Structure prediction request, 154 residues.
Amino acid sequence: MSSWAYLGSGPAFLGHDRQRMALDVEAGLGTPPAGLVVGGLMRMQPYFKEGTDLSLLMRLATRGFVQGNFGLALDAGGYERFWGQHSQGGVGSLVLGAPWGITLNASAGLGTNDERFATFSLGLDFARLTVYRTSGTSWFKNPYATDERGRGPR
Prediction:
């Protein structure tokens, strides 16, 4: 089984020319890290001085992404906004993963009450940094790493 536990921060561009800083907190589970990984993800995204969006997403990720190396993930799902004019709608993300759990996340959404937003965050995926990491194991061992077929630990 694969998992994600991400914490990041970055700018958020909200409708009506508002820009805020946002925190991005994600957790999820997926299939074993072999080939393409399919999973689910919950996201909590507080916007400083505004409120919090909650999202439920499906994730499609490469094995490299899951195993803490270079890789890519695509997220798609819905969100609910309980602040301001209240809104619900769709959200999608392009997620770039680098070794050691470093993650760049670009998201955009469109919802009711003419809400549009885009967010960017840079942070760490702690599951990719610790449990699933296969990079750098020659000098910093990972006893939990999986092999290229998603079996582990080795």
In short: The two ends are 15 Å apart (CA to CA).
